[in-house]
Specification:
- The chain has helices at 16-28, 39-48, 65-75, 92-95, 108-119, and strands spanning 8-12, 32-36, 53-57, 80-84, 100-103.
- The chain is of the alpha/beta class and 124 residues long.
- A five-stranded parallel β-sheet has the order 2-1-3-4-5, with helices on both faces.
- The longest helix is centred in the N-terminal third of the chain and has 13 residues, at 16-28.
- The chain is globular.
């Protein structure tokens, strides 16, 4: 029996600096990562690859968060973590379909803790 395959995480943020930092950190921790700059690009990624977890910024330019979540949920049940600098700006409706919220700014240990907790949920 071989080693378990590394988990693959999709990181969605319209700020390339954010996706670069998160994907670099996750790669250092042994995760495979793919980044997307928009909801549309993320959907294309999901069509072409299976993800164990998705991290998505709440505020993507010119996009509606809950519409992106609904489209993602039609394609995958992977845990979805929203990152936001304004958790008070998220309505109960915005939280439908997401598994966790991580408030910006966050540190690497907070990110890793929430990822690990979501990956331990049965069925994921």
């Amino acid at each position: 029996m071989g080693l378990p395959l590394p988990k693959t995480i999709l990181v969605i943020d319209d700020d390339p600096a954010v996706t670069d930092i998160i994907t670099y950190f996750l790669a250092e921790k042994g995760f495979n990562t793919v980044s997307a700059q928009s909801g549309l690009e993320a959907l294309r990624c999901i069509d072409n690859q299976n993800f164990d977890l998705i991290i998505m910024d709440f505020y993507l330019k010119l996009e509606v968060f809950r519409e992106n979540v609904a489209k993602i949920r039609l394609k995958t049940n992977a845990p979805l973590i929203s990152i936001t600098g304004d958790p008070g700006g998220m309505s109960a409706t915005d939280r439908n379909g997401i598994n966790a919220v991580l408030e910006k700014p966050f540190n690497s240990s907070e990110l890793l803790t929430i990822i690990e907790s979501q990956l331990r949920v049965p069925g994921h």
